[in-house]
Each structure stands twice: as C-alpha cells, then as structure tokens.
Write a structure and sequence with these properties.
Layout lengths: L1 E5 L9 H16 L16 H13 L5 H21 L10 H10 L3 E6 L4 H10 L9 E2 L7 H15 L7 E6 L2 H10 L2 E5 L2 H9 L5 E2 L5 H10 L8
Parallel strand pairs: 1-2, 1-4, 2-3, 4-5, 5-6
Helix pairs in contact: 1-3, 2-3, 6-7
The chain binds magnesium ion (MG).
Magnesium ion (MG) binds next to loops.
C-alpha cells in the first residue's frame, strides 16, 4: 500500500493569501508583532505554533507561553471565520482536487492522509469551507509539531494505525511550501509540488522534480504521484 499525504493551505485549498493576512493580523493584535518578516521559509519551523513561538522570540524577546498560543489560536480562528463569512470563495479548492480524491478513494492500494502546519481547529474548518471529504482521514496538525518533520511523521504513524500496518511501500508528500520540499527530503519520502507558475521555480530550486499547478489531469497525476514515490520507505 502507498500513502499520499496532502498539505492543506496552497495544496488542497487556494487559501494562502487569506491565511497569511489573518495570521499577520492576529500576530499584531495578540502578540504585538507588527509587519514581521512574512516569508515563513525564513523561520525554523513553519507551523502555526512554531511561528508564534519564533515571532515572540524574535520581535518581543521572550518565550511563548501556552496562553499566548491559545489566545492567538482563538483570534486567528475568529479572523478566518470573518473572512469566509464575507467571501466564501477565499477558501476555494484547487481545481480538480475533488475528482482526484474520488479516484484515490477508489484505490485500495492507496491511503490518503493530511499533514498541515495549521492548528487543528482552523485546519478542520478550512476543509469544511472547501467541502473536502477528508475529516475522517488520518491527519496531523501544528499541535503535533512544531517541526514539519514531526507533523508528517505523526500523519504517517496515524495512517499506519488506521490501515493496520507498520509500513507503507511508498510515501508521497504533496505540498506547496519550500518547507514541504525540505521536510520530504529530510524524511526520505517522495514529493510532488503544487504551485502557480510564478512559484514553481522556488520549489524546483529547493529540489522538487515534479511541480503541478492543479489536479485537472487525474490519470496523468496518478502516474506522476506514484512515480514520485521513493522505494522502501518505512512508516
Ligand atoms: Mg501549504
């Protein structure tokens, strides 16, 4: 059995812009951090918890406490809810993803999991807003981090438990961030990048060999996804 692991923002849903805008506003309101470096690739851990910790460390000069993360999570969630109420199309699924997920669900030799740097509560809300049928799938979140390696490793472990196995023949991560490329490389799993034409080069420079802009060509995608897998990857 093979395992395909999807990131959420920018990979399943075209939500990066609104996510960043709400995140930065919450950072200003809750943490008192205004106009920080918003290139998350420059942070040690690209997860919501990891970013909150590093923003406080770098711009406020103190370590994050549990209540900082909780207050941030609540405000960030409220800002995202306001955004979707104003403009539901802000959380549109990437074209073709519904059909691809249907094809994957028909395959008994392919398992699907989710691994996101987002908080569980906001990540699950985004899946609902985009009407993506992934809530019952094995998933890992910022709470499993802060590192993306920890999050993807937790997703692999839960997928193994869900399918009653200790390993997969192949594991393929699909993501849109340079941190997704780096995480796949450090864990030794296959990688498919999802990016607009403008951003594809950034992923390729990090070492991504396959970068797609959408999921409209399902048969080709299934071949691509399976070809991107590296052999003998253990869960
Ligand atoms: Mg992403």
């Amino acid at each position: 059995m093979k395992l395909v692991i999807f990131d959420i923002d920018g990979t399943l849903i075209e939500s990066t812009a609104v996510d960043d805008a709400c995140f930065l506003r919450a950072a200003e309101e809750v943490l008192g951090v205004r106009s920080p470096d918003a290139d998350w690739a420059n942070y040690p851990h690209c997860s919501d918890t990891g970013l909150v910790s590093e923003l406080l460390r770098r711009y406020v000069g103190r370590e994050a406490r549990a209540e900082d993360v909780e207050r941030f999570r609540q405000r960030f969630r409220a800002l995202l809810e306001d955004a979707v109420r104003t403009q539901p199309s802000l959380f549109s699924p990437i074209p073709g993803i519904h059909e691809l997920l249907e094809r994957l669900a028909e395959r008994e030799d392919i398992a699907v999991a989710v691994a996101t740097g987002g908080f569980e509560v906001t990540a699950r809300a985004k899946l609902d807003w985009a009407c993506l049928p992934l809530q019952a799938h094995p998933a890992a979140f910022s709470e499993d981090g802060p590192s993306r390696e920890s999050i993807v490793t937790a997703a692999v472990r839960r997928a193994g438990e869900a399918h009653g196995r200790t390993d997969f023949d192949r594991i393929i991560s699909i993501g849109d961030g340079v941190w997704d490329v780096r995480t796949a490389a450090s864990l030794g799993v296959g990688f498919v990048g999802r990016a607009s034409a403008d951003d594809a080069d950034r992923l390729r420079r990090e070492g991504a060999e396959m970068v797609i802009s959408d999921y409209l060509d399902e048969p080709e995608l299934l071949r691509t996804i399976l070809a991107a897998a590296t052999p003998d990857t253990r869960a």
